Amino acid sequence: MQTNRHAEAIYPAYRGAPPPRPYEPACEDDTDYPESDGQPMAETELHRDLLIDSLLTLDARFQHIPDVCVSGNMLMYYSLGEIRKSLAPDVFVTFGVARKQRRIYKIWEEGKPPDFVLEFSSKSTFENDLGAKKTLYAEVLGVREYFLYDPERKYLPAPLMGFRLVGSGYVAIRPEADGKVFSETLGLSLGLRGDSFGFYDPVASRWLETPMDAAAERVEAFETLAERAEAAAARATLAQQRAEADARDEAAARLQAEADAEQARADAEQADARADEAFEALAQLKEAYRQLQIERDRQKSAEES
Predict the structure, then answer these.
(1) Among 165, 182, 208, residue at a domain's last position
(2) Do residue 220 and residue 81 come from a single domain?
(3) Among 160, 179, 208, residue at a domain's last position
(4) How far apart (Å, rounded) are the C-alpha atoms in residues 180 and 267?
(5) % of the chain at pLDDT higher than 90
(6) Mean of the pLDDT values across residues 264-287?
(7) Which of 123, 128, 150, 259 has the most neighbouring CB atoms within 10 Å?
(8) How far is CA 153 from the centre of its chain?
(9) In this structure, are 216 and 204 located in the same domain?
(10) Is residue 291 classed exposed, middle or buried when 0-12, 13-18 and 19+ CB atoms within 10 A define those classes?
């Protein structure tokens, strides 16, 4: 990563929190303030995507707060009646002002400057970001926190840098052990995240997602749940089919057992009938034998007499 002559000047030790900075109250003003400076929204598609993602993420983060302005790439005027005294922060957040649609941001009408500004530095802007713009945000506007991120990671002394207002000047915010830089105004840490960067909630211990990413995650989760439900339904259907087959087999086995029992009863009855017939035939034979014995004894007695 490149370093430059600003590196030592912008990284002194952190020395405390900034004091409040008063601004002019709203007043009558007939000046025609332009709504565009004719410059492109962002230097590259990478810068544009980061700008949009950051705005969406922060807007979603503070969506339940009624008095906050989350905006960016909007002309901001800081001197009444002077249209040349303006700038357009990539991303800014102001607490304590109405949540509403704005075409431009007039500091004297809003009553305060942004509390937080984030600029995406590039080859053509990093010197101004570290020099004149940094001085303007601190000494003229009184922006409490000023952050810089270098998407290409080759122009700033560090890819991610944060500054906090102390008196009328900025001091660097010391990075945490994992490289994240904490923003007191947002209650979030900014940190490198893969090839990009993101906002991290230290209380919930999680990275914030853009609404689109969060929606995509919910869709993916729903699809996973649907797939699991379909699989569970298929397993239940198969189990039901098996249970029904087992029930049919059991019923068939029961019917067969009943048929076998009935046949056994019939066979037993037939055997009993045959036994009775055999006993009767045996009794008849015994009676015939007895009669023969009687006749033989009679004849013998006759012969002897």
Answers:
(1) 208
(2) no
(3) 208
(4) 92
(5) 51
(6) 82
(7) 150
(8) 29
(9) no
(10) exposed
Is residue 212 within 8 A of residue 52, CB to CB? The reply is no
Q: Is the pLDDT of residue 272 over 50?
A: yes
**Mean predicted confidence (pLDDT) in 192-220:** 81
Q: Same domain for 29 and 82? A: yes
Query: 142 and 55 in one domain?
Result: yes
Give the pairing type, strands 116-120 and 145-149.
Answer: parallel
Burial class (CB in 10 A: 0-12, 13-18, 19+), 81: exposed
The per-residue pLDDT for 58 is 97
**Tell me: the pLDDT tens digits for 279-301?**
887 888 888 888 888 888 888 88
CA distances for 296 relative to 284, 288, 304, angstroms:
18, 12, 12
The two three-digit tokens of residue 29, written as one number: 């003003």
User: What's the token pair of residue 288?
Assistant: 């015939």
What pairing do the DSSP bridges indicate for beta strands 116-120 and 91-95? antiparallel
Model confidence at 23: pLDDT above 60? no
Q: What's the CA gap between 208 and 200, in Å, rounded?
A: 6
What Rg value do the Cα atoms of the chain yield, rounded? 48
Rounded-to-integer distance, Cα 223 and Cα 171, Å? 48
What CA–CA distance (Å, rounded) separates 103 from 156? 31
Q: To which residue do tokens 């023969």 refer?
A: 292
Residue 1 lies in a domain: no
User: The whole model's pTM is what?
Assistant: 0.65
What is the reported pLDDT for 175? 95
Distance of CA 151 to the CA centre of its chain: 25
Question: Which tokens hold the place of 257?
Answer: 């057992």
CB atoms within 10 A of CB 297: 10
Q: Both tokens of residue 265? A: 């009863």
Average pLDDT score over residue span 171-186: 96
**Any idea how long the chain is?**
305
Residues 74 and 51: beta-carbon distance below 8 Å: no
